[in-house]
Structures are given as C-alpha cells and as structure tokens.
Amino acid sequence: MSAGQTSQGQTLEEGAAARIVADLTDLLAERLSAPVAIDGLEPFGDGHSGFTYTVVVRRGGGSERCVLRLSPPGVRIGGPADVGRQARIMAAVGAAGLPVPRILAADSAPCVDGRAFALMELVDGEPWTAAVAQTSPRRVAAAAVRVLGRLRTLAPSETGIAGEPVATPADEVARWRGLAARGVGGDEAAALGAALEAALPRPAAVPALVHGDLHYANLLFGDGEVVALLDWEIAGLGEPLADLGCLAVAGLRWRYPSDPNPTGPRQVAVPELLELYGADEREAGWFIAAACLKYSAIIGYNLHLHRSGRRIDPLYEQLQHTRAGLLRDGLTILSDGVAAVPWNVHG
To answer: Which of 111, 165, 220, 244 would bridge 228 by S-S if both were Cys, CB 3.0 to 4.6 A apart?
Structure first.
C-alpha cells in the first residue's frame, strides 16, 4: 500500500459510478471497434488498495469480470496516482513472462470520470495465508524470492519505464525521510534516516525494476507458485536489493504484537529469506533498514491523514507499535547486523 491510499478510496457516490460506467463503456467501444456493455461496478479488496473496483465487461456474446483501478479524484495524475503508468509496467513485465494481471485497457489521461484508469483481468489466485496452509511457509517464501529474482534480470527496455530516472540509495532515503517528516513520528524517524545517510552503499552498476511494495500480501498464489504480483503504485528503476528489504519487513512485523495486518509468514525469519535469495547479510542489511524507514514513514503519514480527517482509516491507529518498532529495529540492523534482531521474539 502506498502513502495516502486508504479505505475511503473505495466509496463511490451514485453520480460518480454512473459517470465511470458511461466513460468506460464509450472508451472501450471506441478502442475495440465493437459494442461493449459495462455493469456490476463494485468496490474490490479490503479497502487498502486505493480506488479499486470490479466490473463486468460484456462483448461479443461473452462476459468477463475485471478489475478497474482509478486515480484518486481531484489529484494530479502522476507518481503513485498514475495508474496508466502502472499498467504500462505490468504490460511490459507480463510480456517478459512475469506473473501479472493481463492489461485490457489503460490510459494516464483523465478519461474515466476525469481520472486515469487501468482495466485488467481478475486473476484466479489465493492469498499467502491459504498458500502457507496448503504448502509450507518456506515454499511460499521461496516462490516469492523466485519472482524477485526474475524482476532483477529484466533489462530497462523490458520494464515499460526505460528512460525514467534511476533512484539511488540516497534518493530513497531522502524520499521516505521527507514523507516521515510530514506524518506522525517524524522526529523519531529522523535518527534512522540520518544513520542510513551516513552509511549509504554505492549505487548498483546495473539498475533493476523495483516493485517498491513487494510483500506477500501483494502476491497471489496457485499450487505453491506466484500467479500474480499486484499493486505497482511506487514501482521504478533502482537498487536490485530494495525489494528484498520490503519482503524482509514482512518477517519483522511479527515482532510487534499489536500489528493487525501481517504481510507474510511468521515462520520464515529474515536470515532464512536471505539464504533463499543468496544475499550477503551485510550488503542486504542496509536495504532492510531502509525498508523499515519506508514503511514507518507510510504508516505515520497515513495516520496523519486519518487524524486530520483527510482520509479516514482507523487501521493506522493500531499500527503505532509497528511504526516505532520498525524504526528501532532498523537502527539495530544498521548498527549491529541482521543477526542482532531476534526475529521471532516480540520487540
């Protein structure tokens, strides 16, 4: 989940729903040069994936239930709000053989109720909790690591965003330190941000496509393998180990007993995850600590939006131990190494 995207994003007043259906119907009919009918517009997911809905697309005597993502109303279409860009990335990596939903239509222009849109297939898959129950935590972690490894091998020309700026480690720290300063707990985050800046690794010689929010809850599984990698809001070109840091935070979150939103299996500690990936603990430690800063900043900023009434989502009130714990553990990992954190012990 990216900063500023909350459960309020799913609410649709009747007039907006009618405009979305009308605009999408006209747009698809024009692009497909055939009659199209759209119905069944409904909120989709748990409310924490932005403005996401399901629709039924009827054409040529058949029908397909699809997922529709929209940019937030009244917000400049750019960055995480540019769902057309997200679709371009998904289409490109799908063509390269990675498991992502098939894109049916998308545009970064404000053409569906004045918003950018992406229409994609509804993938038949299971959440990580079901996959763990049917296989094992290690098998699920290994499947996630395999997808991460495949992302790392993509050339920039296969990402859909070739030519965009490459985010260095310094850029990443500046981005999330800046967001933390605008949210709850910004002063607490400053210490980890400063420690990360003091220990910046050298930028990778070859950049990689970075999903930016790669944890188990953004994966769908089938027969123990990943069948879809979802939610590309903050994807970009950057450091190959950045997504490994995000995946590691899923293991860290079990250390915070009040966290209501675990994003991965408890049984796979981070040292085991690094072994599966083949990453050196010293090299990966900085990126895990950077991911701690990122997710702490996102939680703090979304709590600020909630408390200010701009985007109501009480989940973030329940994540304050997680926010503080991530900052504390990030500092420990950075100063003393990955092994210094007792992974299955409450922090």
So the answer is: 220
